[in-house]
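Notebook p. 47: complex prediction with NAP.
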Amino acid sequence: MGLLDGKTALIFGLANERSIAWGISKAFDEQGACLGFSYAPVVEKYARPLATKLGATFIEPCDVASDEQIEKVARKAKKYFKKIDILVHSIAFAGRDELKGHFYQTTREGFRTAMDISVFSFVALTKAFQSFLNPGGSVMCLTYYGSVKVAPHYNVMGVAKAALESSTRYLAYDLGPKQIRVNAISAGPIRTLAAAGVGGFRDMYKHFADISPMQENVTTEDVGNAAVFLASDLSKRVTGEVLYVDSGFNIMGVQMGPKGEKSGGK
Ligand code: NAP
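Predicted complex, structure tokens below:
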């Protein structure tokens, strides 16, 4: 018996098999969920075959910068599924130029775009789908530690993730009375397409395992399993939270560099 038997999940943000959305999709599938997908129109070639692999037949393009496209996909999903239980937002975007150099060089347009695609879209999707989310339903998004501490080069995306986490709390408050929960997963660095756009990502990724208590990088499977918890009834009274899936990286106040005393344990 799967933890998500009888539940329907709609997943936004599948680009390819490195995507966090793919790790989540596989974990949901293993736990018995029925899956539907929406992807950015430009990744059709990669996303559609993956979604089909998991038996999905609801696979719709949607550029979340467009209110019309969000409304359209919500209308189609309502017609197709009638009701859904789980909504996953695994989407972010900022121009490459914004993810290197000084934060103060962020442009007005770059700031607007990052906030629109990476934050407002979460609010807009929640609004579009809330009327046909079942009570007991779960909405989630993906965030990163650069929201609360400075991660060099992450810049405007750090500010956007702070707004995303705050939006998670406000949405949790709004949807609480309907018994719908809203949470965020804060994942450690994972080598995906989106991450490749962040200046210095390679170094950050490499040093992560040296610094985090568990001394290991995070995988999309790790995030998928945490997403199963948030999607399932096991987390029935958990809402408005940011769940860290980062080998404990966020608890560190002082970074000791290459593994300190713990290295003997490996
Ligand atoms: P990814 O595979 O590149 O996924 C990002 C997705 O956002 C892509 O499918 C992308 O489509 C989509 N997207 C961008 N603009 C869009 C738009 N206008 N409309 C619809 N979709 C759009 O990278 P990922 O790392 O899995 O990212 C998923 C989420 O995890 C993001 O919120 C990211 O910030 C978060 N996260 C990632 C890490 C990490 O280290 N990788 C860590 C913590 C949190 P396109 O490819 O067409 O742009």
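Notes: The mean pLDDT is 95. The radius of gyration is 18 Å.
Next step: compare against the earlier run before touching the bench.
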